[in-house]
Amino acid sequence: MPASDEAVAVAVDAAVAAADRLATDPVLLEVADVLVVADLFLVVTAGNERQLGAVVDAIDERLSAAGREPLRREGVPSSGWMLMDYGDVVCHAMLPEARERYALERIWGDVPRRDPTTGDRLPDGAGAGAGA
Fold first, then answer.
1. Measured in whole angstroms, how far is the alpha carbon of residue 80 from the centre of its chain?
2. Sign of CA dihedral 59, 104, 81, 90
3. Which end of the chain, N or C, is more open, meaning fewer C-beta atoms within 10 Å of its C-beta?
4. What is this structure's pTM?
5. Residue 17 — very low, low, confident or very high, per pLDDT cuts 50/70/90?
6. What is the mean pLDDT of residues 1-26?
7. What is the DSSP string of 18-73?
8. What region does 115 belong to: left with phi over 0, alpha with psi -120 to 50, or beta?
9. What integer is the mean pLDDT of 85-90?
10. 17 Cβ contact partners less than 8 Å away, ≥ 6 residues apart
């Protein structure tokens, strides 16, 4: 079953908030068919620890204003990877080194991708993003 329309809208809002703080290489992975705990993973890169914190704060502020609060928030900027779990959408903000090391796009390489600015499904093989 594809991601819900609500989950797609939340993920796009999160991607817009991340882009507002100059996060790069956004990838939206549709994991709904292989996970029961989430519909979408948003993965973005921040250039340094300070920006990483700002990206996560921006996502939190934007989604909170829309009435969505994270179920949990994990990591600190110095870890290189911060995660915000909104139930149907999980946002991963990473420093370049962590993104390359954990290679989420490669691990989830067989799931469909969506355009992080529109939520539209991308053709198979499109939107490879960083670390793919």
1. 15
2. positive
3. N
4. 0.92
5. very high
6. 96
7. HHHTT-EEEEEEE-TTT-SS-SEEEEEE-SSHHHHHHHHHHHHHHHHHTT---SEE
8. beta
9. 97
10. 55, 58, 59, 61, 62, 63
Tokens describing residue 107: 């691990």
Rounded to an integer, what distance in angstroms lies between the CA atom of residue 104 and that of residue 73? 18
Section 48-77 average pLDDT: 97
pLDDT digits (tens, 9 = 90+) for 95-131: 999 999 999 999 999 999 999 999 999 998 665 544 4
* 119 contacts 28 by C-beta, under 8 angstroms: yes
Joined tokens for residue 66:
């829309």
User: What is the number of structural domains in the chain?
Assistant: 1
Is residue 80 in some structural domain? Answer: yes
Region label for 16, one of left (φ > 0), alpha (ψ between -120 and 50) or beta (otherwise): alpha
In eight-state DSSP terms, residue 79 is G
The two structure tokens encoding residue 68: 């969505």
120 within some domain: no
- The answer to the question of residue 22 being in a domain is yes
